[in-house]
Every structure is written in C-alpha cells, then in structure tokens.
Specification:
Length: about 300
C-alpha cells in the first residue's frame, strides 16, 4: 500500500478534529499565523504561541489574521518556552515558525530541559509529485550533517515509523548514493551495503531495504530497467535515506522549487512530533506539516493506548 496523500491527511484530521495543543516557536510571521488559523478553524489544533505577545499581535493585525482562541505564552526565548510547554504536557506537538533551526535544536536537545530521546533527531518530509502521482519520504533533510551508521539506523527506523503511520505496511527504502556500485572510494556505498546486510539478517524489520541506489534508480522504473537493476525497491521507493545533509538538502530543495509538488515535514526522534520545514515556507506547506505531525501523533497514541 502506498503512502497516504496530503488530501488523505487533511480528511483524517477534519474527521477527527483532535484540537491538539501545539506549541509554536516563532509565531510572528504571516504564513505561520495563517496556517494556525486555518488548522484551528478546522478543529486540528489549539495554538499556544510562544514568544513576545506584542510582536505576534502586531504581526497578526498587519496581515489581518484573527488570533481569537489562540493562547499566548509570553517569553523572551520562544524556542525554550515552546519546548518547555511540550515537555510539561501542556502541548502535544511542537511547531517551528519564524525561528532558526539551531535555536530550536538547542532548546530541544538540552539534556535537562529539552525533548531528547535515545534516538537521533531528524527531519523527514513527505513529498507528493502531482504529475507522476508519486509520494515518498526523504531523510534526513535538515539536521544530521554527516550521520554515522548508527545514526542512519535511527533515521531509518524513524522514517519507517512515519511510513507505517501513513499506511505503508512494509515501505520500500532506498539507500541513496551517486551510484549503485559499491566502491571504497565512496564510503556511503559501503554503509548502504552494511545496512542492506543487516536488513537481510532481519535486524531492520517492517520494511524492504535496498542500496546503494542513485536517485534515478530509486525513483524511475524505466531507469532501473535500462540499467538492469532489479529488486523490490528499484523504481518504487517509498523512502529515500540519504548519506548526508548536503545531498538530502540539495535534493529536497531542488524538488521543492522546480517540480509541481506538495510537501510538508516533521522532526522525528524527539519526545513529540515537530511540524518542521523552512522559514521560507508558504502557508500551505505549514498546514501540510501540521497534518503530517498530527498523523504521527495519532499513530503513537494508538500504540500506547
């Protein structure tokens, strides 16, 4: 079964109307406020805006967005205040607004007051290409600069969990590289080979793993046919695990700005899902990210019930 679409996520959130409390770090931004207003009106979330209340209200007034029903958490440090709200249970979700990634990560990874777990924190966007009607997850596109093999295992496990939440019972995972050949001059191919070996030994359950694979081989069945590369993942990847931040970030942004697509992202590996993409995001992308975070939170609630 393929990954759920954003339309599927919207319908599920509309039907459930969870009104999940979401702590927002950096809400003084028109697109953030517009997305929160739409999500609140649809019954998805109850926004808790962390930061300077006067600045948020001024922005809301300037862009004509009502903050009626929003809660304010007046604080000098929005990231720390938002993270504290999630850690205390006051909020069930965290949302990155107009704030830098390093500022949010410092608050999240603080060993005493953050949302750290034993698993590596990573960004996983869902990409939906309209023309080809293809959907896939990409990891890690925003946090781990040069993940170790163990961190890649963490990232893979987080992505598989998200894929399961999106309805893919056994997602097909492509371990990305510039080539499908294993060569010592490209260490990422050796790690892809090792991860594939561990999967074959049953150490990475709940998915199908293949790699190394180049982007064309992971994405396009005709490319796999022409290059005579077989396997269940080739040409049909539900998830792409990249070797480092450089390759992942360049790929996701190339797709975002050149393809007819929809996307939204979450941070996984923390105590709670985090709706997380770029400060340059549109209102629609922020709403997509909230819908994705809500689905992950719902899945976790079912597992712990």
């Amino acid at each position: 079964m393929s990954l759920a679409s954003f339309d599927d996520l919207y319908r599920a959130a509309d039907d459930a109307r969870p009104m999940a409390p979401v702590a927002v770090a950096g809400a003084a931004d028109p697109t953030v406020l517009a997305a929160l207003r739409a999500a609140c009106d649809r019954g998805w979330v109850r926004p808790i805006l962390a930061g300077r209340e006067t600045g948020v209200r001024r922005t809301a007034e300037a862009c004509s967005v009502s903050v009626n029903g929003f809660e304010f958490l007046d604080a000098q440090e929005p990231a720390s205040a938002a993270v504290a709200a999630v850690r205390s249970g006051r909020a069930k979700l965290l949302m990155k607004g107009q704030i830098t990634t390093p500022a949010l990560m410092r608050a999240m990874l603080d060993p005493a007051t953050g949302l750290r777990t034993e698993r590596a924190v990573c960004q996983i966007p869902l990409v939906e290409l309209r023309a080809s009607k293809r959907r896939f997850l990409m990891a890690d596109t925003g946090i781990c600069i040069q993940p170790t093999l163990l961190q890649k295992l963490d990232i893979l496990q987080s992505a598989v969990e998200l894929a399961h939440a999106l309805g893919a019972a056994c997602p097909r995972v492509a371990l990305m590289s510039a080539t499908e050949s294993v060569t010592e001059s490209m260490p990422e191919t050796l790690e892809a080979q090792e991860l594939t070996r561990r999967w074959r030994e049953g150490k990475i359950p709940g998915c199908i793993v293949q790699g190394p694979l180049s982007f064309d081989l992971a994405f396009a069945a005709d490319a796999a046919d022409k290059k005579r590369v077989g396997g269940d993942v080739a040409g049909a990847a539900d998830m792409m695990l990249f070797p480092n931040l450089l390759s992942a970030n360049l790929t996701i942004k190339a797709i975002m700005y050149t393809a007819d697509c929809r996307f939204g992202g979450v941070l996984c590996g923390a105590r709670a899902p985090v709706a997380f993409m770029s400060r340059a995001d549109t209102t629609a992308t922020r709403l997509n990210s909230l819908a994705l975070a809500l689905r992950l939170a719902s899945q976790r609630s079912k597992q712990t019930a």
